[in-house]
Amino acid sequence: MKILLEFARGPLFRLTFAVMVLGLARILILDIWGMIEAYRRAGDKNIPWKLTMIRTVEWLFPVKRVMHHRPLYSLTGILFHIGLLTVPLFLFAHVQLWRSGIGFGWFTLPRLWADILTIMTIVMGAGLFFGRLGHSKSRVISRKQDYLWPLLLIIPFVTGFICANLGVAPKFYHLVLLTHILSAELIFVLLPFTKIAHCVLMPLSQIVMTLAWKFPAKVDEDICVTLNKKGAPV
Amino acid sequence: MSIAILTDVTKCIGCAECVVACKQVHGLDKDLPRVWQKNDGLSACSWTSVIQRPGNHYIRKQCRHCLEPACAASCPVGALHTTKSGAVIYDDQKCLGCRYCMTACPYGIPRYDWDRRVPYVRKCILCFERLERGLQPACTTACPTGATIFGERAELIAEGHRRIKAEPEKYLNRVWGEHEVGGTSVLYVSDIDLDFMAYKPGLDIALPTTTKKAMESVPPAFLGMGATMLGLNWIIKRRQKLQGQSEDKED
Amino acid sequence: MNRVHVTKTILWMLTGLALAVALTRFAFGLGVTTNLTDTTPWGLWIGFDVMAGVALGAGGFVITAIFYILRQEKFHPLVRPAVLTALLGYIAVILSLLVDLGLPWNIWHMMIYWNPHSPLFEVGWCVMLYTTVLLLEFSPVPLAETSRWANIRRVLMKFRFPLVLLGIMLSTLHQSSLGSLFLITPFKSYPLWYTPLLPILFFISAIALGLMMVSFESLCTSWLYRRPAENNLVARLGSAARWVLGFYLLVRLLDLKISGNLALIFSGNWESWLFIAELLIMAIIPIILFSIPRVRHSATGQWIGSFLVVAGTILNRVNVGGLTMVGTTGEYYFPSWMEVSISAGIVAALALVFLFAIEKFQIWETRPREPESDPHVQPAFSRGGQTWLGSPSVAGRTRYSLAFIIAVAIGFALIPAHKIDSSGVVDIVAARALGGDTLFVDGNRDGFGVAFPHAAHIKAGKGKESCVGCHHMNLPLDRQSGCYSCHRGMYLTADAFGHDWHASAAGGNVACVDCHTRGEDRTAATARPCADCHKDLMPEGAAIKVNTYTVPSYADAMHDLCIPCHRQAAATNSDHPDLYRCPTCHNGKSPDWPTLAGRQPWKRRLNNHNILPVVSAGIEGPTP
């Protein structure tokens, strides 16, 4: 068990964390690169920059849109995101680990706040799951992974909370801690390759949508060549 | 003047006071056995050490301060150089960390700060700052038995020979450092053979002379190659031209 | 996937791995990432990357000499690739130097601090100048892609001949000076490789290697892009190389004959076999192969021949650069995987640049293409937005970047955390002392230790009550718990506090507040001192006070324990003024202990001693 734990928080952590950071950087760069190329080839280069910017900001801080449609569900989502981002980043125990690993740490949450936020995240995560399950329109547009994600995301929160607060016999303590680490690492690995990548792509989504409707110049001819019908009318 | 250290192996009791003094004077860290360390006690934190040989013989090891140091000759930026007094010292502001000096040293003396992000070459600098202040090196000052003493090189060589002459049955008839690699500033008289201290015993050539010849032929080689190439080019050009003319005539 | 894709994916992975390793090397230093030692300060990066890298870049000056100086116009197709390879080769040398140098940010010091006596100074200058020359020689090729810098291009074209001439002159110097580097180590190099002719030998072999490297790379790219190779030209190069190699062989053997070391070839030790293998690979077999016209003109023959020369010359450089010194230094060196991955990564990165250049610029007569870069293939979808943006080459881009980041992550995962944490300190576990009235204290069980007259100390300390003067009482009812039970590491501090055991004994996580202050973050700082519960730890009169949860290394603990008392005793007892000095204990005169691990007691070493701050009088002593 000890060896497994050492492995999970040593090499495996470095591997998965690097995959996450580099993977997110990679898709960000690839998307920006693709956008630049799309812009360069676009036949119509009129982009409504200002409007796109405003929409991006609106979506990044969705104060205005919260009450728009299913306000409770939206609010649950927002609270879930707050907990999801703050607790792992600013938990004292985590920062302590960074401190011993890389030599410096940063601001940490008071213990009580961390506990409250953790419970809130767990509750909101469950709320998101049931909100999706319980709404017929959501069910239609949901894939399997959409249900699994909130559940997977709250596993490290539940296990982390158990490790930090509740009395667990040492034998199970290691097991719970291992679950905590491994589930977090699973999230790290999946992050850049699934829809959770929106954590870095979100600011780009509006501009991508806009650009996606700009067809490349002379695209009609290219399509004909690709379909082996050169010279055919479009 | 050329200064030197004479170590009398027969007098050394192995107390390592010299090592302690050296560490104190230069503010060196505690030593730890590292994977890259050679097993002779020298390290980036120990610029001198005491080696024990069978039969309770203690030999102090330190930089020999060659009169014609291979390390200084090899250093591309002149970070290692000899002072007027004869100490071979190191300027860490100049060093770029190529470690050619470590490869070139016939005694394998220079050590490296392998564990540091900003590593330097480390070795005995014969306390050249203390010498400037009119003091002796820390090690010779600290020696409780007078086994290692400081003075003028010529005088110490004479002193070594005097000791050998006085007690020929005690000493081996040789002052180590008098002739090796063109002479060194750290001398030894001993009752046991000290050849194990060098990679190759009996190497009496000054090492810088080996590369000197090659380095001196650099400018002629440079210009000679240029001239040869230009000459060849001229000949071939002319030949091709003539060939072209003759072909033209044939046409 | 096709050849080009597979190759590029592998190259990207090697580059990624090297990137992770390079970051580690710059973050933690050379010691923990390489297998270099004080005895072997130069390793793979110098032996392979620098020594062989410069030699492999010799193709540039050899082919330009053939084309511009000797005016052999038919070699024109090989000029651009040769110059490009040379340029990239030299960049590789500089990159690996940046990794290998301890203080790479000082590399420019060679420009301002001169030591013209040093061969390395000369090599450094020539490499700097020649890389610039190569850049100027090559830059007209990319500049031809745009009309913006046409003027610059025209000027460069005008100065092409003097540039080529300068390049050849500089190459002559540093190719030979790389050999001069090792003239200064006659005491270490094996006589079969050491000769005053080293610079000349290096130069001649560089010419042969230059010819063969150009051939090799022509064959490689033709295989990769299914492009017809320049087999006729390669055959001609092979023909020329055989004369150069023949001359090289002659000079080398004659030199050995004159110096009287020829007999060493047949002495049967590993150096002699290495020498024979080296000569066979780099000279003899290629000469034979290239002397047979049928073999010389066949693709297979050219592959084998050029590969042998390239491999053999690399072997030669590695041999001269350090491998053959092993016999003298007695220390074996094998590069760590991190050194290997940096070497491989630099080569891979430059190979990617090479492939990029031959796809984008007019290097060969026709530009080879990535098979999928045709704009008329089925589009691929980008992952993030599920929309198709940009050209179909997105597929390649996606694949390479994925390979790259996975390799970087694997690199980080493989970092030897233990070696880095301990800064290269040899990890030795301490062990129990042996014996009766006199104990043999040999913490690391290697036969080197100290004989400790225990009974005498008890007597001097006035009986059983003096135990607490030296021993901890860290276990309940304990009188003499073994030092090694807490001071586990011979040289490293250890964490002695069993946190999990304490938590378990106190009733799991609910019991945290038994020790940690309620409401505060649970760290060592907020916990109660051990002695609060373990009153036995510090009985009255105990010499050692336990304040921290970490314990000093075994060696430190022993020295800390003994030296102060000995010092005190030496000061008060004029019979033993040297009582505190190292040889008092490390004296080699202790009773005849059974030889442990096959070592003799006299070998008890004085080196590797962790000298503690012993206050010594009179260092600011009299002037000479």
What is the structure about, briefly put?
By secondary structure, chain B is α+β, with helices and mostly antiparallel strands.
Layout of SSEs?
The complex is a heterotrimer of chains A (234), B (251) and C (624).
Chain A: H1 2-9, H2 11-41, H3 49-60, H4 71-90, H5 92-102, H6 111-133, H7 136-141, H8 144-164, H9 170-190, H10 198-212, H11 219-226
Helix pairs in contact in A: 1-2, 1-9, 2-9, 2-10, 3-10, 4-6, 6-8, 8-9
Chain B: E1 3-8, H1 17-26, E2 49-53, E3 57-61, H2 70-74, E4 80-82, E5 88-90, H3 100-104, E6 111-112, E7 121-122, H4 128-132, H5 138-142, E8 148-152, H6 153-166, E9 186-189, H7 208-216, H8 218-250
Parallel strand pairs in B: 1-9
Antiparallel strand pairs in B: 1-8, 2-3, 4-5, 6-7
Chain C: H1 3-28, H2 44-56, H3 59-69, H4 76-100, H5 109-112, H6 119-138, H7 140-143, H8 150-158, H9 160-180, H10 198-224, H11 231-259, H12 270-291, H13 293-297, H14 299-321, H15 326-329, H16 337-360, H17 394-414, H18 417-421, E1 434-435, E2 438-441, E3 450-453, H19 454-460, E4 494-495, H20 499-506, H21 512-515, E5 550-551, H22 554-572, H23 582-585
Antiparallel strand pairs in C: 1-2, 2-3, 4-5
Helix pairs in contact in C: 1-16, 1-17, 2-4, 2-14, 2-16, 3-4, 3-9, 3-10, 4-6, 4-10, 4-16, 6-9, 9-10, 10-11, 10-14, 11-12, 11-14, 12-14
Describe the model:
The complex is a heterotrimer of chains A (234), B (251) and C (624). By secondary structure, chain A is mostly helical. Chain A has helices at residues 2-9, 11-41, 49-60, 71-90, 92-102, 111-133, 136-141, 144-164, 170-190, 198-212, 219-226. Chain A has one domain (2-226): Fumarate Reductase Cytochrome B subunit (Up-down Bundle), CATH 1.20.950. Chain A has 11 helices and no strands. The mean pLDDT of chain A is 84. Chain B is of the alpha+beta class. Chain B folds into 2 domains: 3-207, Alpha-Beta Plaits; 217-250. Chain B has 8 helices and 9 strands. Chain B has helices at residues 17-26, 70-74, 100-104, 128-132, 138-142, 153-166, 208-216, 218-250; strands spanning 3-8, 49-53, 57-61, 80-82, 88-90, 111-112, 121-122, 148-152, 186-189. The termini of chain B are far apart. The relative contact order of chain B is 0.18. Chain C is mostly helical and 624 residues long. Chain C has 2 domains: 34-335, Formate dehydrogenase/DMSO reductase fold, CATH 1.20.1630.10; 434-603, no CATH class. Chain C contains 23 helices and 5 strands. Chain C has helices at 3-28, 44-56, 59-69, 76-100, 109-112, 119-138, 140-143, 150-158, 160-180, 198-224, 231-259, 270-291, 293-297, 299-321, 326-329, 337-360, 394-414, 417-421, 454-460, 499-506, 512-515, 554-572, 582-585, and strands at 434-435, 438-441, 450-453, 494-495, 550-551. In chain C, helix 11 packs parallel to helix 14 (299-321). Mean pLDDT of chain C is 83; it is low at 589-624. Chains B and C meet through helix 1, strand 2, helix 2, helix 3 and strand 6 of B and helix 1, helix 3, helix 6 and helix 9 of C.
